[in-house]
Q: What sequence folds into this?
C-alpha cells in the first residue's frame, strides 16, 4: 500500500497484491518500481486536479458560481447554430439588478456581494440542466435557453423575478432592503 499525496493533499493510494509469496530479495525491486509508479501517478492525478480547477476558474464567475462572460461569448454562437440546425428556438434573456450601484454605495460592496451570490444560486436552481446561466458583468446576468419559446421564457423569467422580489437576505445579522 503506497499512499499518494501532492502539495500536502491526499490524491489516492496505490494497492498492489502478489498472487504468490515472494522472497525479500524478489520484493525489493518490485517495491522500488511500485514506489516510482506511485510517484508518477500522484503527479499525474495532481496535474489533472489542477487542470480541472483552472478550467473551472476560466469558465465560471467566482462570486456567483455562474458561467462567466467569456464562456457565454464562446458558447452562445454554438448554441444558436445548434438550435438552427435542429429547428429549435433559443431564448436569450438579460437580467439586471435594479438600482444596484445605489445599493452598493449605501450598503457597501460586501452587502452587494450577498445579493449577487443569492441571485446566482437562484438562477442555478431554476434553470434546466441544458440552460446556461451566466454573469455578464457587474450586476448583469444572462440566461441562454435552447429549445425555449418566447412564451415559455417569459413565464420562467417572471417566476424568477417574483422569487427575487420575495427574497429576504441577511447581512451582518440584519435584513437587507
A:
Amino acid at each position: 500500500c503506497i499512499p499518494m499525496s501532492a502539495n500536502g493533499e491526499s490524491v489516492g493510494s496505490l494497492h498492489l497484491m502478489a498472487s504468490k509469496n515472494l522472497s525479500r530479495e524478489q520484493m525489493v525491486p518490485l517495491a522500488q518500481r511500485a514506489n516510482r509508479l506511485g510517484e508518477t501517478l500522484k503527479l499525474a492525478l495532481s496535474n489533472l486536479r489542477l487542470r480541472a480547477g483552472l478550467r473551472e476558474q476560466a469558465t465560471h464567475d467566482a462570486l456567483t458560481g455562474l458561467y462567466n462572460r467569456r464562456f457565454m461569448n464562446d458558447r452562445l454562437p454554438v448554441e444558436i447554430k445548434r438550435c438552427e440546425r435542429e429547428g429549435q428556438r433559443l431564448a436569450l434573456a438579460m437580467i439586471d439588478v435594479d438600482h444596484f450601484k445605489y445599493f452598493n454605495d449605501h450598503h457597501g460592496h460586501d452587502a452587494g456581494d450577498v445579493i449577487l451570490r443569492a441571485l446566482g444560486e437562484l438562477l442555478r436552481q431554476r434553470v434546466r440542466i441544458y440552460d446556461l446561466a451566466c454573469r455578464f458583468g457587474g450586476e448583469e446576468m444572462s440566461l441562454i435557453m435552447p429549445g425555449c419559446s418566447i412564451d415559455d421564457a417569459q413565464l420562467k423569467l417572471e417566476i424568477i423575478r417574483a422569487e427575487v422580489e420575495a427574497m429576504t437576505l441577511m447581512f451582518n445579522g440584519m435584513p437587507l432592503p
